[in-house]
Design a protein that fits this description.
- With 137 residues, the chain is α+β, with helices and mostly antiparallel strands.
- It has one domain (11-133).
- 20% of the residues lie in helices and 23% in strands.
- The chain contains three helices and seven strands.
- The protein has helices at 50-61, 81-84, 106-116; strands at residues 11-14, 21-27, 34-39, 42-47, 65-66, 120-122, 130-133.
- The chain has a four-stranded antiparallel β-sheet, with helices on one face.
- A hairpin with a 6-residue loop joins strand 1 and strand 2.
- The protein is globular.
- The two termini are 21 Å apart.
Length: 137
């Protein structure tokens, strides 16, 4: 993976279907610590703990989970990564996205990062991609 995950050397990523390139980096000085996602000139921010929390949730699921990416204003399909990223039942009790109006798309931008970090397997089909935690080797 290109980049070290800092503002000056962000991770260079692409959506699961390969349709959009974007960058992400950790902002540990923010309160709360953030994961910053730049898609063109659009800035999205997520709680940094989303990396560990999403991986732990996927381990608990034990199999493939649909990504289900959706904008904040649209409903997320039940049982998807997107729905979990908004759920009152996740570890932060709601949205991992922190910027009002731009809190969605969790299921689009987080799974490719987890794949690049070696934490998950991710499908790369034109549509309806799924993710699962990597199996212990």
């Amino acid at each position: 993976m290109a980049g070290s995950g800092t503002r000056d050397d962000p991770w260079q990523l692409a959506t699961a279907n390969g349709g959009s390139a974007y960058t992400m980096w950790r902002d540990e000085a923010a309160d709360p610590p953030l994961l910053v996602c730049m898609v063109g000139s659009t800035k999205l921010t997520y709680h940094l703990q989303a990396i560990e929390d999403l991986h732990a949730w996927l381990v608990g699921q034990g199999d493939w989970v649909e990504l289900g990416g959706a904008d904040e204003q649209k409903p997320a399909a039940d049982g998807t990564v997107e729905a979990w990223g908004r759920s009152a039942d996740n570890p932060i009790g709601g949205w991992y996205g922190t910027r009002k109006g731009y809190r969605g798309r969790f299921g689009v931008y987080l799974p490719p990062l987890l794949e690049a970090l070696g934490l998950v397997e991710l499908e790369h089909n034109p549509r309806n991609n799924r993710v699962r935690a990597r199996r212990a080797r």
